[in-house]
Each structure stands twice: as structure tokens, then as C-alpha cells.
Amino acid sequence: MNVPDHHSSRPGNGPVWGRRDFLGRTAGVAAGAAFVGALAAEPASASQTSAEPASASPAFEARPVRTESGLVSGVPGSQHGVTAYKGIPYAASTAGENRWRAPRPAPAWRGVRKADTFGDAPPQAGSGFAMSEDCLNLNVWTGAAKADARRPVYVWLYGGGFSGGMGSDPLFDGSTLAGKGVVVVTINYRLGALGFLSTPELSQESGHDASGNYGLLDQIAALKWVRRNIRAFGGDPDQVTVGGQSAGAGSTDLLSISPLASGLFRRAVAQSQVRFPSDPELRYLGTSHRKKSVAEQQGASYAAEHGATTLAELRALPWQDINDAATLKDETVDTGTVAKPPLFRPVIDGWVLPVNYREAYERRVQSDVWYLAGNNLDESGAVPETAFAYWREEGYPDRPGAPPIHVTLDDYVSAAQRKFGALADEFLALYPAGTDEEAALASNDAVRDNSRVSTYLWGEEWSRGADRPVRTYFWTHRPPGADHDLRGAYHGSEIAYFFGNLYPADQGWTDTDRKVADTMSSYLANYIAEGDPNGRGLPEWPVHDSGSPTVMEVGEHYGPIRVASAPKTDFWKRYFATQDAW
């Protein structure tokens, strides 16, 4: 595997990282006060995996940080020289009269608030963690020893289908990126019906004739909090990158076309989400959305099912009664597969989201931000080739609401005819199969080509209305574990490597995994700082090129690869042209 082995610095807002810097600097942590005192100019040292908390930066450990609501004190992060601030409220509780309203300012406090414990998660399915409607809190990791360090900022939005997730997930520990010179912020936002319920009464009450995007309004409020407060943590409010995975990536896309988020961030990272606007996959992925009229009808029906005839009655319901919406799917959406989007998801409401993706791109009204986006080898219906025979032999059941694992030749042909219609024969000629085994492999090939071509065409569409460069990737590295050959480079498998946070620690990570984590977190730190992931010793990551239908493979290998053969690329273009834009 080709992995980087050294780094250089260049003029700009932050350091440029390479692998030797990441691995080699850990030996210098004993340099003492002289090294710590230079943290404002140089990134703190880091190690590749989560570890027991080390000593925090003395400057921050001794000095509380002043936010607009009051003073906060931090705790040592999991890397030397990094301080973490946990559970900082960025808005008031969303309970009671604040339910289904835009977030309101957090109340002030006196004295020093100990930011040593994560706040409550948003209500969602699951157990084993605290959740409540008082959930609009965020977490900050910084290695800056001075408030005027002006380090680049990364705001992370979790995935989970707009029905699950939390900023306190240990997978999102920002210590490694903070050690590379980035101030990392993870946030909570409302989920399910509490985050995305729309009714005519809520729209009328809002003053904007809009409802249903409370989770997105939370994200925007958090970005505004960052703009007002992050300087106190050594961050630069003018160098903010927003990133996320799955629904978090969908949120990033939505924020890029929302006028309410304009000017709040300069760069974007979308992991496992970005597709061409006419790709039917968008209908159930993180970018799936609803028309306002449809959302209001669905919300009114939901309220009636819960015996609520007024907003007061809806707001009086215990959140536990509303939390049942977390698992509801929207069966009215034709995605071309058995997959369906969550019932409660963003709304084209005319205010937060005036238009959908295609309209935003056609009108050239998207934010002019740097963009880095990509997808994974084994997601959206693709699975490792090593898994098919195992599952067929073991009788592993298909997953409800997900593409089938058991692919027979008859299933394959029928699905092609149903999805591609008049283009089915051409599809079957490009992706031929004569047996069940060949059908499974051909289906895999088609899913992966669809993903790569769709993302490439999205880059074409985005670039027409933006001056900033776009970069795309295709993640191929398979994490270790007992099910390594069954899950492959699955949905979300890249997160640990992008964060440089190989969690959980007992998963059997190898030196190869640590090198991949170093490479990917170096790419990401460079991109957050400069808008360019490249650095000396890192394999060149090219910008999107309209004349070259390629994507950057990362993980198992590094370098541009074709999105598909020319005939297959042409086929997907013509197929998308027959579909409605999303």
C-alpha cells in the first residue's frame, strides 16, 4: 500500500500534515514546557489510537474559557496537549413551549461551569445513555494554548437517518484532529418527529409559513454559536468547515443550499451521501426530503393518531410518546429498491430550504464553498464478494428495508426490468449474469458504478455554480474484526480513520490501520486548514476534472481511478436523464 511518510509546512492558515509527522511527533512529548508553550504556532502531538487522557495543555487547564453564557473549564483530551470541553449548551431546552420552535438562546450561568461530562442526547430509539429534550449541547476539542491562536474549525454532524445519533459518540472524539491543529466541535440536533414534524398549525405559528426543519435550525444555531464563541477556544470563526456522514452529510448538503446558513462555513465534507440530483438513490439517503404539503399532511395524520387536536396538546405529550416515530418509514416514496427513507426528515419549506438540490444548482444559489465528498465500497446495496457464498450457505436473513443479500438470477433480471424499464436490456448486457453467483457479483458491480458515476456527475453539477474546487473519493479499506470479510468497507467504516480515532481500542487494529488513520486524518486536517488535502509525502488528491471521469480511491490504495468504463458511464448518464430530479 502506498502511504505517505513525511510532511512539510506551507504558508496559509494551518499546518500541512504527513504520516511521519504524525507518527514521529509522539516521541517528542517529553520536550516539556518549551514544546507546550509553542502550541499556538505548532500542532500538539498525537497518537494514532484513543488512549487514556494525558495531561491537558497547562494554559487551558489553568484558565477557564469565557463563552457568551458563562465560563467553562475543560478536561484533558485523549491526546497530549488537547483539552476537551463537553456538554456546553448552545441553545435552551426544547421541552414544553420550545418544542417545535426554532432554538432559543441558552440561559446564562454564574461561576465556572465544569464542562467535564457530555450532555444529554436527543430523544431517539435505544437505551444505555441519557436523553432528554434539553439536548442542544456541543463539545469542543482544542490544542491551542492561547485564545488568539486562530486555528481552523471543524463542526461535525452525526448520521443516523435523522432518527438517531449524538455528538458524544466516542467514535467522534476530536483529540487526534485537535493534535493536528484543528479545533473540533461536535453537536447535537433534534431527531425524528421532535426534529422534523410539520403541520399546518406549526407553519402558521412560525411567522415564516414553514415547519418541519427544527433539526436543521439546531445545526444553524450551533454554527452561529461557533461563529460567536469559538475564538475563545483558539479557533478562527472565519475558517469553519462543516462535515458529516450519512444523514450528517445530507445535512451538510442541505446547509450548503440554505440561505440561513450562508456565510457560516467555508468548506464542506460529505461522507457517504453525495449523488447526482436525478439519482433515485437520493430518495432514501441522507438527502431525502419532503414537499411542504406532503410533510404537513403526514404531520397532521401523526398528531391525530396520538389523539392531539391542538399544538398545546401535542406539546403536552411526553417525549417518550413521540419517540415512537424514530422507526417509521415513508412508504410513499418510490426509490427503485425496497429501501425507504425515514418518515420524519427535512422539508422544502420555503424558508430554511426554499428549493431542492436541482433547483438550487440550476439557479446557482448554493454556497460557494470548497467541497470534499465521497462514498464507500460496500454500501448502498454492495457487499464484499466474500460474503455472498457465506450468507447463501449460512442462510443469513435479508435485512428489512435494505437491499437483499440473497441475489438469484431471476431476482436480478426482474429487478433490472423494474428499475430500468426500456434500458433494462442494455443494463443486462453491460452487467451480464448467467448464474446466481454471477448475478450477485454483477449487482455489486452495478451498485458501485452507480455510486461513483453519480458522485462524479454531482461534482459536474456543483462546479457549474461554484468557483471553489471539488474533490471526491471512494473509500475501500476494510476495518479489522470478526466480520471483516462480511462487512467490508461498510457504511460508516471510514469515520474512525478520518478522525484518526481507532475506536473501540479492542477491535484488533493493525499497523496498517494506524497508517491509514494517519493518512486520512492528515488529509482531513490539511483540507480543514487550507481547502486542499494535499501535503508533501501524501499521494496527490486531484480536484474534480470535467474532462476526466475519475475519483480518488483512498484507504486500501491511494490514487485516481475511473468511475466506470466509458459505455457504463454513458449508460448511467442516460438512465439518470429519465428520472425526476430530487
UniProtKB/TrEMBL annotation:
Signal peptide (UniProt feature, chain positions): none
Matching PROSITE patterns: CARBOXYLESTERASE_B_1, TAT
PANTHER family noted in UniProt: CARBOXYLESTERASE (PTHR11559)
InterPro entries in the record: AB_hydrolase_fold (IPR029058), CarbesteraseB (IPR002018), Carboxylesterase_B_AS (IPR019826), Cholinesterase (IPR000997), TAT_signal (IPR006311), Type-B_Carboxylest/Lipase (IPR050309)
EC class: hydrolase
EC number of the protein: 3.1.1.-
Protein name (record): Carboxylic ester hydrolase
Highest taxon of source: Bacteria
Active site: 246, 379, 491
Key word Hydrolase present: yes
Family: Belongs to the type-B carboxylesterase/lipase family.
Lineage summary: Bacteria, Bacillati, Actinomycetota, Actinomycetes, Kitasatosporales
Keywords: Hydrolase
All residue ranges annotated as the Carboxylesterase type B domain in the record: 65-559
GO-annotated molecular function: cholinesterase activity
